[in-house]
Design brief:
The chain is of the alpha/beta class and 254 residues long. The protein contains eight helices and seven strands; from the N terminus they run E-H-E-H-E-H-E-H-E-H-E-H-H-H-E. Bound molecules: NADP nicotinamide-adenine-dinucleotide phosphate.
């Protein structure tokens, strides 16, 4: 493997990697040589997914916690560092959706989306930064969304949470750069996952969206493996504070 993209010897934690985009990025990081820690809320599902990676000859383990339980997440990240001796890459990916007409949003809806998508990522980054500062190197990657940069009706809390990730990444990039830690956000477009299942049941909507995507298709989780490896590897070592759109080009369409 080209050493620019090799993650051999590195330890990477991907939150929300039992399925979907987190799984796609975790598999890509493992295939680039990293020891990958899968995360989600269900230990049994994680054990199955770890076995799938090991069956490919890759190195993987799991750490189950709910990212909205800050104390459990901090303990989980500390456990990863204790077990593996270091933490080189954090992909803060776990997230949830929320779409409601404006009058129907409740405080509980708002808090659920913000706690899962924004607060958790900040505190995950805080916990991961401590060993990275000691190591004098690290990569923090937030899973953002094009909806943090462009408008769409009904997803007020979701869009705000994703927009906030870009702001936190820029702040952390400026604060942690002197420790050789990069912090970036991936702004995803439309991807085929559990999270977008409801949206994809509307065939007319899917056709309209496909017509607007220059590459004429929704992304698959595998489409994020490359950007994750790039940002985690030596190849991406001088890229920080950026919000990088991986969206089949839809963000550029009028
Ligand atoms: N799909 C898209 O089109 C799209 C586009 C742009 C951005 N994104 C973002 O990409 C990220 C992943 O989305 P996805 O589409 O892959 O969703 P998904 O298929 O629903 O997967 C979500 C993952 O996060 C985990 N998770 C959810 N809540 C959690 C919590 N509180 N604590 C720990 N893990 C939790 C889930 O595992 P368990 O349920 O087992 O805990 C699962 O592994 C999200 O941040 C989402 O906003 C998605």
């Amino acid at each position: 493997m080209n050493p620019l993209f090799s993650l051999t010897g590195q330890v990477a934690l991907v939150t929300g990697s039992s399925r979907g985009l987190g799984w796609g990025m975790a598999e890509g990081l493992a295939q680039a040589g990293a020891t990958v820690l899968l995360n989600g809320r269900d230990p049994a599902t994680l054990a199955e997914r770890v076995a799938e990676l090991r069956a490919q000859g890759l190195t993987a383990d799991s750490v189950a916690f709910d990212v909205t339980d800050t104390a459990a997440m901090q303990a989980g990240i500390a456990d990863v560092v204790a077990r593996h001796g270091r933490l080189d890459v954090l992909v803060a990916n776990a997230g949830t959706h929320g779409a409601l007409p404006l009058p129907e949003w409740t405080v509980a809806d708002w808090d659920r989306v913000m706690d899962t998508n924004l607060k958790s990522c900040f505190f995950a980054a805080q916990a991961a930064a401590a060993p990275m500062v000691r190591q004098k190197s690290g990569r923090i990657i937030f899973m953002g969304s094009l909806t943090g940069l462009r408008g769409r009706p009904t997803i007020h809390g979701y869009a705000a949470s994703k927009s906030g990730l870009g702001a936190i990444a820029r702040t952390l990039a400026n604060e942690l750069g002197e420790h050789n830690i990069t912090v970036n956000t991936i702004a995803g477009g439309y991807f085929e996952t559990e999270l977008s299942k409801l949206l994809r049941q509307n065939a007319d909507l899917v056709a309209r969206i496909n017509a607007r995507i220059p590459l004429r298709r929704w992304g698959s989780p595998r489409d994020l493996a490359g950007i994750a490896v790039f940002l985690a590897s030596a190849a991406g070592g001088y890229v920080t504070g950026q919000e990088i759109c991986v969206d089949g080009g839809i963000g550029t369409a009028l």
